[in-house]
Task: structure prediction
Amino acid sequence: MIQKTLDKLRPHFEEGGKLSAFRSVFDGFETFLVVPSTTSKSGVSIHDSIDSKRIMSFVVIALLPALFFGMYNIGYQNYQAAGVEASCVDLFLYGLLVMLPKIVVSYVVGLGIEFVVAQWKKEEIQEGYLVTGILIPMIVPVDTPLWMLAVAVAFSVIFAKEIYGGTGMNIFNPALVARAFLFFAYPTSMSGDKVWLAKDTWFSLGNIIPDSHTLATPLGEAAAHIAPQGDFWTYCVGLMPGSVGETSVIAIAIGAVILLWTGIASWKTMCSVFVGGAATAYLFNISGLADNAVAAIPWYNHLVLGGFCFGAVFMATDPVTSARTEGGKYIYGLLIGVLAITIRVLNPGYPEGMMLAILFMNMFAPLIDYCFVQRNINKRLQRTKTK
Amino acid sequence: MLRTIKLKKGLDIRLSGEAEPTFTPVEQSTLYAMRPTDFHGIVPKPVVKPGDKLRAGDALFVDKATERIRVVSPVSGTVKDIVRGERRKILSITVEPSATQVSADFGKVDVANITPDALIELLLRSGLFAFIHQRPYDVVASPTDTPKGIFVSAFSKMPLAADFDVVVAGRESYFQAGLKALSKLAPTYLGISPKQAESAFLPTEGVTVTVFDGPNPSGNVGVHINHLAPVNKGEVVWTIGAEEVIFIGELLSEGHVNLKRRIAVGGSEVIHPEYVETYIGAKIGDILRNNVTNSEYHIRIINGNPLVGTISSEDDFLGARSTELSVLPEGDDKHEVLGWIAPRLNQFSAHRSYFSWLMGGRKSYAPDCRIKGGERRMIMSGEYDRVFPMDIYAGYLVKAILTGDIDRQEALGIYEVAPEDFAVAEFVDSSKLALQRIVREGLDTLRKENA
Result:
C-alpha cells in the first residue's frame, strides 16, 4: 500500500514536476519507508544487507540510554535545586520536555541544510546527520539557548562537513565542531557554574530557579582548586551536573557494548583512549603537583568524570574522522587519552579537555594513516630493490 | 609435508541450492558461441564467415594485434553468425553444431621432451593459450612474456562455486599432465584447500603445492600470488583456471582439443542443483531447461558464481571461463517496508547488527540481487581489509583508482590485484561501491597509460 502511494506521488517530484524542488526530500522519505528495489548491474549479484542507514541507526540506538538518563538527570537536578520532592516519572518527563526542543531544533536545522545541499548537488540524502543531530544536544550544557544551538548546528554542518564534500569527507567531527563553536563564540553561556541547570518550568513540570543558583561540575570545582568530593561510584551513576549525555558512565557503557558488539565502533580506538587517559592521569597523580587540584584527582576518577567516557565511546570512534588504518587506531586513541587529561590538568581554563583533544587528533589522523600506508608502500619498494 | 598458509581474513557465504556432487550430461545444445568479452584484453578479429564449416579446435577469431592468440570453436559445425553490438563490437561468434563431433588433430605430445617454445606454439595453435591470464592488469597473457611464475588454484570458496574434486574426477591424469607441461614454461604453483591434501589429483610433478587455509577468497589465485611471489612493477605472472589445465593435459595426451567441462548449476531458483557436463559456449537456456523454478517473480541467471559472475539470460552462452551457473531471485519486484531497521532474520549479513551470526555459518541463505542501500562515500574504515587477505590497503587502493592517481596505485600494489579479489569486499561494503567495476576500469586505464 505504501508502495502504491509512493508510486502515485513520484511524478510530482521528478524533473519538471510541480514539486521537483523537493526531490531529495521525497527520495529521502521513500528510501526510509521502503527498501529501494534497485538491483546490481555489474560486479557482485548479491549484497550484504548492511547499509549506512542501519549503521547510523544503531549508533543512535546506542546513544539512547545516555540520552534517557540525561533527561532524568535534568529533572533530578532541577527538583533538587528547588528542594522539591517528585516522582521518577515527573523528573524524566521534565527532562524530556527540556530536551525535546533542542533535539527538534538540531534535526530541523541540520537536516534542512543537508536536504538543500543534496537537492543542489543532485545527490541522495546522506545519513550521517542522523547521528550528529542527536549528539549535539547531548554534549552542550542544558541551559544553552535554542538560537545558539541553531547557529552552531548550521555552522558545523556547513563549515565542518558540506564544504569538504559531505558525509565521509569531513576532517573534523561535526558534533564537536558545533560544541567548539559554542564554546569559543559564547564562552559565558557554555561554561562556568550557571549553565548546568534547567531553570524554567515546562507545562507545569519543574521549578523556576533563581539565576543566582549555581551548580558546579566536579571538574569545574577542581579547576577552581576545590577538591571534588564525590567517589568513583557517584561519578559512575552520574546524578550530577554536566552536559546532558555525558554524566552517566553506566548509560554510556550500555552504548559502548552495543557499538562494540555490532563492530560499528573500533575497540582498538576506544580501548586506547582509556589506556592513554589512565596512564597520563596516573603520571599526574604521582608527579606531586601539589597546588593543582585536577592533577590530584585519582586516575580512575579522571576516566569517569566529565566528557571522557562519552568522547571515548561516541566521538573518538567516529570512523570518518578517526584513523582508518588498523594500527593507526591504537596511536590515534592513545594520543586522545593523553591529550585530554593533559589539557584538563595543565590548563584550568578548559576543564574539559576531551573536545579539544579529539578535534586535535582528528587533524592528525591522516598523518598517522600516512605513516602506516607509507610503511606498506616502502615494503613493496624494498621488494624490487633486493632483487 | 605441504606448506600451509593460514588466512584469517575473509568471509564464507553459504547460499541455498549448492550443487549436489552428481552429474548429468546434457543433450547437445542447439547453438554454441564464443564471446570475445570472456578474453579480456584482446581485440578480436574474426577469421571465419557465416556458413564456414569448422572442426572443434578450429579458430573462430584471433587477436588483432599479433594474430597469434586464437580462440577456437568448442564444437564442430557451421558458423551461423557474427553477432555485433554497438559500434560493430563483436559480441559473439555462433556455431551450429554438427550431429557428430569432429576434432582438429594437433598430434600427441610427449610432455617430457617438448621445448618451451614448441609448447607455447602448440597452446597458441590449439586456442588454449587464450585461457592463460596475466597479472598485472588481469588480461589474456602475451606469448612473448616470460612469466616469473604460473599460478593455478584447485579450489574456490566463492558461494555456489564448483568443487574441483568433482570436476576433475576421472580426469586426474590430464590435470597432472597439464601441470607438468606448464612447469616447463615457468615455476608453477598449485594452491589447494586443506581438505584436498589427500585428493586423487595429487601428487603433481614439478609443481609447488601450497595449502591455503581460510575463508573466501582464499581460493583466489590473487591471494596465492600475494603470499608466494607478489608481482612487482615490470614483472608478470600467469594464471590459469584448474579446469583449463585439464584441457591442456588432454590436448597433450590425446592430440585434440576437448572443451567439455563439468559446471555446477546452483542457486535457490534451481530445481535440481547438480553438476552438468557440457561444452563451453553452450546456450544457457539449453543447460537450464526444465531446471529453473517456475516462479512468478523475476529471476536472475548468472554466468559464474554470484560474487564474480556476470548477469546473463537464457539466450546467452556459457562463458568460456565460467565454472558454474547460478540462478537467484532478482528482487526488483520486491518491496520491503522499513527494511533497514527490521530484524531481517532470513537475510545474511557479515555485520552483527543483523542476527545471522547467531547461526554460526550453519544456515544457508537465499538472497536476491537487490543492493539494499544507496551508494555512499567510504564511511566505515577497515571494512574491506577484514575480507581482503593480502598485504594491501584495499580501501586506499580503491581511493587511488577513483582519483586516477597512477603513481599511488602502483605504490599501493595495483599490479597484484584483479577485480575478483575485491568481490567479497564489494559484498560487505556498507557504502555499496561497485568495487569490481572500479578496479576493472582502473586496470584498463593503467594498461593504456603504460602501453
Notes: The first strand of chain B starts at residue 3 and ends at 6.
